[in-house]
Amino acid sequence: MKSETGGGLLLPGDPPPFEVINPEGRARLVLFSDHAGRAVPQRLGTLGLKQDELDQHIGWDIGIAKLARKLAAALDAPAVLAGYSRLVIDCNRRLDDPTSIAQESDRIPVPGNRGLSGEERKARQDAIFRPYHAAVAAVIARKRKQGPDPAILSLHSFTPRMNGFARPWHIGILWNRDPRLPVPLMARLMQEPGLVVGDNEPYSGKDEHGYSVIAHAEAQGLPHGLIEMRQDLIGDTAGVARWAETLIRVLRDVLADERVYQPRA
Q1: Distance CA 153, CA 150 (A)
Q2: Of 32, 249, 23, which Cα lies nearest the Cα of 133?
Q3: C-alpha separations of 31 from 27, 64, 72, 178, 191 in Å
Q4: CB contact at 8 A, 37 and 81
């Protein structure tokens, strides 16, 4: 199922702001990925960037869309994938966050994001941000109506090196106040041979910098976590297949435990 274009910014031929995969999925799980896509609306050109810059990690979460599709199919879970580059508007930032429409990313200036009027910012919000989050909310609401309440997993990927530091983690689990899903998930991942698991690495879920997990899971009291996969591990078809197999095995074990879904004390 794909969304309709709209909001004034998008033209015929522009991709939709989101895609819902496996909407009828029966698993007690909802997946979403805020940075799955790297499209830029035709009206915005290339935001003043070269194509190879848009294709870098600053433009999207490399490999995560393919991984999300495999997880959704194997686990029989619905997944919502954002269609546009995080450089157009970041679907994991509050609209009042200065980095919602980044003027610079990883020291690369984004000329097309500078000097925007309020109307131009609103056009991006209405065409991309709001439809995507409405889709995530609708999928979760449908699962809750059908019952029982699902677990929520946000899927991201991270660059293997940042500011000269080689990040050692294969996978990181970000979380804040709710340990129900992330703690057993990390424990189960650590049972996999040779796997380096980051607890709130390479970013921290405790700084509340992100938006989506807070808005769609924490606010509703649903068990949740955010998975960060290292991009060089899922940058090709073989890597995606290998890590999907691992995550499918791990998630089946973790999500089968009813303690994950018990209300917090």
Answers
A1: 10
A2: 32
A3: 10, 11, 7, 17, 23
A4: yes
Does 3.60.10.10 match the CATH number of domain 18-260? no
- Bridge-based pairing of strands 151-158 and 108-109 is unpaired
The CA-CA-CA angle for residues 55, 57, 58, to 5°, reads 90
Give the model's pLDDT for residue 169. 98
pLDDT digits (tens, 9 = 90+) for 67-116: 999 999 999 999 999 999 999 999 999 999 999 999 999 899 999 999 99
- The ranges assigned to domains in the chain are 18-260
3-state secondary structure of 142: helix
Alpha carbon 265 to its chain's center: 28
- Cis before 148 (ω within 30): yes
Residue 202, preceding bond cis, omega within 30 degrees?
A: yes
Residues of the chain with pLDDT under 70: 1-7
